[in-house]
Amino acid sequence: METVTWKCQCFVCKRPIHGGRPCLVFSTERPEFIGVCHSRCSYGLYKHHCHWFQMCSPYHLTGEQASFLVHFHPKLFSLPGAMEPNGELRQALGAILDDYPASMKSPITVLRRSVEEQRHFHPERQYQGDLERDFLRCLGEIQRSAKEAPLAVEFDFRPPVW
Fold first, then answer.
1. What share of the chain is helix, strand, coil (3-state, %, to 5)?
2. Is position 69 within any domain?
3. pTM
4. Burial, 76: exposed, middle or buried (Cβ in 10 Å; 0-12, 13-18, 19+)?
5. What integer pLDDT is reported at residue 84 of this predicted model?
6. How many domains does the chain have?
7. Is residue 149 part of a domain?
8. What's the number of CA atoms in the CB half-sphere (13 Å) around residue 146?
9. Strand ranges of the sheet holding 153-156, from the earlier edge strand across to the other edge
10. Per-residue pLDDT tens for 4-50?
11. Is the pLDDT assigned to residue 110 strictly greater than 80?
């Protein structure tokens, strides 16, 4: 398994990444890892059918966690947008990225927090169906496809121990 770490080349500016919070770039159309970039280089990427995930502490993702993200992004962007009818599912799934991978320890907590936030800001909106069932079904589909087609890359951007 390949390990991507410090000094790898930025996908956007082509300079080495030496610090900060690196961003992993994924395709929004198909399960594909595109590259790693500096956080400051990530802002214009949405125009190119890709989405970035900024590394969260402890700045390490196993191959299994990275595979999940590769399959997560196309599924997320195939759902209706947040302000469209039934966009609540996309919003709830997107909330997983706020603290990934720690958020996967209790995805139902993430869902409930997202539902409460949506009720607070948009009380008139109603999801047509069973949001919890659809949320868990999507997570299961993503995990199944991640196991069937894993990404053989691990990301380790933890600070060096001196």
1. 45, 15, 40
2. yes
3. 0.90
4. buried
5. 80
6. 1
7. yes
8. 22
9. 2-5, 153-156, 60-61
10. 999 999 999 999 999 889 999 999 999 999 999 998 888 777 666 78
11. yes
Q: Give helix then strand counts, H and E, for the chain.
A: 4, 6
In terms of residue numbers, what domain contains 43? Answer: 2-156
Helix or strand or coil: residue 151?
coil
Structural domain contains residue 162: no
Residue (of 112, 117, 148, 145) closest to 131 by Cα position: 112
Tell me phi and psi for residue 156, to 5 degrees. -135, 95
Report which of 104, 97, 162 is spatially closest to residue 136, judged by C-alpha positions: 104
In a domain, 39, yes or no: yes
37 and 25 Cβ atoms separated by less than 8 Å = yes
Token pair 């991978």 in the structure block, residue = 101
DSSP secondary structure code for residue 56 in this structure: -
Pick from 58, 94, 61: nearest CA to 79: 94
